[in-house]
Design a protein that fits this description.
- The complex is a heterodimer of chains A (258) and B (399).
- Chain A has helices at residues 3-9, 28-39, 59-70, 75-88, 99-105, 107-116, 135-141, 156-165, 187-199, 213-219, 230-238, 245-257; strands at 16-22, 44-48, 92-96, 121-123, 145-146, 149-150, 170-173, 204-207, 225-227.
- With 258 residues, chain A is α/β, with parallel strands linked by helices.
- Chain A is built from twelve helices and nine strands.
- Chain A is 47% helix and 14% strand.
- In chain A, helix 2 packs parallel to helix 4 and helix 2 packs parallel to helix 12.
- In chain B, 46% of the residues lie in helices and 17% in strands.
- Chain B is built from 16 helices and 14 strands.
- In chain B, the strands form four sheets. A six-stranded mixed sheet of chain B has the order 3-4-14-9-10-13, sandwiched between helices. A four-stranded parallel sheet of chain B has the order 7-6-5-8, sandwiched between helices. A two-stranded antiparallel ribbon of chain B has the order 1-2.
- In chain B, a hairpin with a 2-residue loop joins strand 1 and strand 2 (18-19).
- The model of chain B has no long low-confidence stretch (mean pLDDT 95).
- The chains are: A alpha/beta (258), B alpha/beta (399).
- The interface between A and B is large, with 37 and 34 residues.
Chain lengths: 258, 399
């Protein structure tokens, strides 16, 4: 679904979910099914195109990325997953990846292909605005956009600027460092969210270390969207070949929101 | 020339289209701080004087330029060696480590953090930390720790904490991530000290600037010894710090041919070499743009070299630019040529070179044979004591 339409749709929702899968993990078909399951409850889905040096990711996603690459994942496989998700679910489909995957494919070619296959946004942690090889501009030309990522420690001016440039929502990490580690939703997180809110009027998607429904409940009303990545990838890891990936992941998404 | 250093890199850290800073905003903030501090502090009279004194009294600079007479006589040509193997700790690495540590001191930092692969950068940085009384934390893959035991011990003797990195492949790449993570936890009290002319801005510039002393000294010494400039200047290139230090002094000398020597390893097959500029294509890795050994999908390829200091899939952004501008000729030599040069220099000159530097020596020997009338200045970037066990085990002691 288109970003703006989705944002309109979730306006009155207490909290929305952004799910995340690593494309091709454990294989292309299963990762697609897992994503479909998540999308029964999630309004946004990140499809990660794996890269072997995922600098923003922790062990769980890094491990899944290695396996997907070893299994022969290609960018074209990623676009296939994106296409299917955009045609069969109501979620905003976001391509998450790293700079060199996009750069090597060719920025314009990548954006064009993404758009054709129904992707609505990009998250590329090592292509931040101002140093993105023209990704934002190109995406805009094709009527889609780049979601900017910020972490604690970023100053007010920068939050304002990146919030302004970010497409639809601003991705905010609950803490510094990498994905997957534990995050306590306490006073510090709330203060950080408040800082972001003061400087950015767009909905924020809070991620990094979201693994339980109690965290989601604690964030309800404070942030519009909650992001869970390693949580879902861990669920996928726990399933054996031939499992009902769609059903199991739908259950996992539902549990998170319960 | 003055203009070259003023405009290279530009204010965003670009060397032509290479370099830059491809990192998340919170890390960018810290890099901006280091950049500002570098510009403000490193140009001050006090800083320059202190670094000059350290170089002279602690590092033993200037290192000599030496005419390799027996080797030259045998091959033809005239081979001169810039003796960075005589720099304290036995390699050029200490040049930028002392600079980075001095900057850290002026910035009021208490701790130096870095990654290391084979341990050479770690040892140099631990040395600098001991000199300034700073804490030092070196991140190293578990696999490398087992392989490079003597360097681990050296770091510990020098007072550094060695953090074992146990995730992923447990080598250099994971060590980089781990060190950056540690740095980001406390950027106020610590500083990240990179090991070559790589990484996001300002590191490629800063490390180059601290290494320029090599080329400035060598050019002057060579002129003084011979009354002319060298016809050829040769240095090995992994990340490229020693070569950058050497080449920058000769960029304006149109008649000086510059050669960067990459490791051609065991063969031209993927995973058998680390000849980045020779076989790579532009890409983005570890926060900067450069020539990169990568597959058609953009994944960095596995690399190998007999010299562990050269096996990196990327290369300094300034080298990438100089290659495009055809200011430097990038070429390569194989493991076996490197080992031949290792023994030749040991036997004929009484100098055991590091395997990294042996690549430069090997290429210089080829040049000397082909150009008997020309002079060749080689950056002998480090001594080979660290490599002797490996060589004896794998190649024996040649007769």
């Amino acid at each position: 679904m288109e970003m703006n339409k989705k944002l309109e749709q979730i306006k009155n929702k207490k909290i929305s979910l952004m799910g995340h899968i690593v494309g091709g993990y454990p294989d292309v078909e299963s990762s697609l099914k897992a994503a479909k399951g998540i999308c029964r409850h999630a309004d946004f889905i990140e499809v990660q195109f794996p890269f072997s040096d995922p600098s923003a990711d922790g062990k769980v996603i890094e491990g899944a990325s290695y396996k997907a690459i070893d299994a022969g994942f290609t960018v074209e496989d990623g676009f296939k997953i994106v296409k299917e998700l955009s045609e069969t679910t109501e979620a905003v489909v976001i391509i998450m990846t790293y700079a060199n995957i996009v750069y090597k494919y060719g920025i314009e070619r990548f954006v064009k292909k993404a758009k054709e296959n129904g992707a609505n946004a990009f998250i590329v942690p090592d292509l931040p605005y101002g140093s993105d090889e023209g990704l934002s501009e190109t995406a805009e030309k094709y009527g889609i956009g780049v979601i900017q990522v910020i972490s604690p420690g970023v100053g007010d001016d920068r939050i304002k600027m990146l919030g302004d440039k970010s497409y639809g929502v601003l991705y905010v990490t609950a803490r510094r460092g990498i994905t997957g580690g534990k995050t306590d939703i306490g006073a510090e997180t709330e203060e950080w969210i408040a800082t972001v809110k003061r400087n950015c009027s767009k909905p924020i998607a809070l991620g990094f270390g979201i693994k339980s429904n109690s965290q989601v409940r604690a964030l309800s009303g404070k942030t519009e969207i909650v992001v869970a990545g390693s949580y879902f990838v861990e669920k996928i890891t726990s399933l054996s070949k031939g499992s009902d990936f769609e059903g199991e992941l739908a259950k996992a998404a539902q549990e998170l929101l319960s | 020339m003055g203009d070259y250093f003023k405009n290279t890199p530009n204010e965003k850290g670009y060397f032509g289209e290479y370099g830059g800073s491809f990192i998340p905003p919170e890390l960018q903030k810290e890099m901006d701080r280091i950049t500002d501090a570098y510009y403000a502090i490193s140009k001050s009279h006090q800083f320059i004087e202190e670094l000059r004194s350290i170089r002279k009294h602690f590092q033993g600079r200037p290192t000599p330029v030496y005419f390799a007479k027996r080797l030259s006589n045998e091959l033809g040509g005239r081979i001169y060696l810039k003796r960075e193997d005589l720099n304290h700790t036995g390699a050029h690495k200490l040049n930028h480590c002392m600079g980075e540590a001095l900057l850290a001191k002026y910035m009021g930092k208490k701790k130096l953090i870095a990654e290391t692969g084979a341990g050479q950068h770690g040892v140099a940085l631990a040395t600098a930390a001991a000199y300034f009384g700073l804490e030092c934390e070196i991140h190293m893959g578990e696999v490398d720790i087992a392989k490079e035991h003597p360097n681990v011990v050296r770091m510990k003797i020098l007072g550094a904490t060695v953090v074992s990195v146990t995730h992923g492949l447990k080598t250099l790449k994971e060590a980089v991530d781990s060190a950056f993570e540690a740095y980001l936890k406390d950027p106020v009290n610590s500083i990240y000290c990179i090991g070559s002319v790589v990484g996001p801005h300002p590191f490629p510039m800063m490390v180059r600037d601290f290494q320029r002393v090599v080329g400035i000294e060598a050019r002057e010494q060579f002129l003084e010894m011979t009354g002319e400039l060298p016809d050829n200047v040769v240095a090995c290139v992994g990340g490229g710090s020693n070569a950058m230090g050497m080449f920058t002094a000769f960029l304006d000398d149109a008649d000086c041919k510059l050669y960067g020597v990459e490791p051609a390893g065991r063969s031209t097959k993927i995973g058998d070499h680390a000849a980045t500029i020779t076989y790579g294509k532009p890409g983005i890795i570890h926060g900067f743009k450069c020539y990169l050994l990568q597959d058609e999908k953009g994944e960095p390829l596995p690399v190998y070299s007999i010299a562990s200091g050269l096996d990196y899939p990327g290369v300094g952004p300034e080298h990438s630019m100089l290659h495009d501008l055809k200011k430097v000729n990038y070429t390569s030599v194989t493991d076996s040529e490197c080992v031949d040069a290792f023994f030749d220099l040991s036997r004929k000159e009484g100098i055991i070179p590091a395997l990294e530097s042996s690549h430069a020596v090997a290429y210089a020997m080829k040049l000397a044979k082909d150009n008997p009338r020309q002079s060749i200045l080689v950056n002998l970037s480090g001594r080979g004591d660290k490599d002797i066990d490996f060589i004896v085990e794998n190649y024996g002691i040649r007769k």
